[in-house]
Automatic annotation (TrEMBL):
Pathway(s) where this gene product acts: Cofactor biosynthesis; tetrahydrofolate biosynthesis; 7,8-dihydrofolate from 2-amino-4-hydroxy-6-hydroxymethyl-7,8-dihydropteridine diphosphate and 4-aminobenzoate: step 2/2; Cofactor biosynthesis; tetrahydrofolylpolyglutamate biosynthesis
Gene Ontology biological process: folic acid biosynthetic process
Pfam families, sorted: Mur_ligase_C, Mur_ligase_M
Family of the protein in this entry: Belongs to the folylpolyglutamate synthase family.
One annotated Gene Ontology cellular component of this protein: cytoplasm
Species of origin: Devosia litorisediminis
Protein name as catalogued: Dihydrofolate synthase/folylpolyglutamate synthase
Lineage: Bacteria, Pseudomonadati, Pseudomonadota, Alphaproteobacteria, Hyphomicrobiales
Residue span, Mur ligase central domain: 46-262
Alphabetical list of InterPro entries matching this protein: Folylpolyglutamate_synth (IPR001645), Folylpolyglutamate_synth_CS (IPR018109), Mur-like_cat_sf (IPR036565), Mur_ligase_C (IPR004101), Mur_ligase_C_dom_sf (IPR036615), Mur_ligase_cen (IPR013221)
Transmembrane segment boundaries: none
Amino acid sequence: MSRTDAILKRLGQLHPKLIDLSLDRMLPLLDALGRPQDKLPPVIHVAGTNAKGSTIAYLRAFLEAAGQRVHVYNSPHLVHFNERIRLAGKLVSTRRLNQMLEHVEAVNAGRPITFFEVTTVVAMMLYAETEADYLLLETGMGGTYDTTNIVAHPLGVIITPVDLDHQGFLGNTIAEIAVSKAGILKRGSKAVIGMQQEEGRAVIDRAARRLGITPLFQGEDFHGAAQDGRLVYQDEDGLLDLPPPALIGAHQYDNAALAIAATRQFGLPVDEAALAKGLRQVVWPARMMPLRGRLRDLLGPGSELWLDGGHNVHGATALAQAIDEMNRNRPAPLVLIMGMMNTRSPAAFLGPFAGKAEQVFTLTVPNEPNAHKATDMAETIKAAGFAATPKRSILSALQAAAAIPNARVLICGSLYLAGDVLAKNGTPPD
């Protein structure tokens, strides 16, 4: 076990629950550490059910293309914890991370605090002591009581599409979940809102207007779409004709448009040339990502291997649409290799793939006690009308997939599975 893992294990034992939505444990600790949340560069706070990470990836690409230094906070990580904390463009070094983890641990002095709370405090300390131009801050879950909701005056707030997810914590309807997401809105901050279902849109609009905010809504105040192989963006300030995003899938045009709207609404120093450069260079691992290397080599020469961490129905719908686009260019039998946490429904996730997937191989996500068992998942999937076979490992699943000539193989269902795949492929994020 590495030193980092040993520290994180100790911190994870300070509170019996992994998730306990509250700010009451964090705020005294932040006070004891000198309130680092008040010493941050301008913050763009992002909440939503899907597309938070992709939207932040575009914003980072745009700002860095414009010469800006950018902090980023994302979760979860795929392979190494360092991926969660990017300082002025670079992932935090292991040495510096360990020093801050131990410092915060000492100040906390064994008091109950959840893993995500204490590691968010660590990130705030690192961001406060490192010079940068902006901080792109992603919520972990919800908004109102999310650990990141400690910034009193963000420059801007983005709410990406809200859908059913984490119902046990956030509510059982789109409206209830939207109430939580809207909790990151702050008086005096500007807001840009992604595509929403009507009940979610109404909740967010009411919350914004109570705070004196007039938000921009995607599909009403700004638009972005694919036209003739380009991204065409339009708002009241005019039209932009831009390169297509480097990230795969029609949904990425929506995500890119949301980020472009934020740069304009928040007054970021990003011109059209920086937008174009950012769209070409944007990177977001394990989101419809082509895999090359040792795992791809297990398949036949005519096959493709793709990796995506999507794990809910909204994400699966976007994935199925991306597969449809690929089939228009090159039809190929679709093979899914799938592992999921037991808080998700495998049958619901596979709904958008009905009539598309030739075979599903199921895996138990390695080292995750709360993962669906591969055998149980295969039975559930068979009952939903899919051909499904459990496999012991990603290697045996790929070897089985290799028996289907010229297949398009997609590994999906869990970011934890995606991280394990990247580690086994020898291609962790930078």
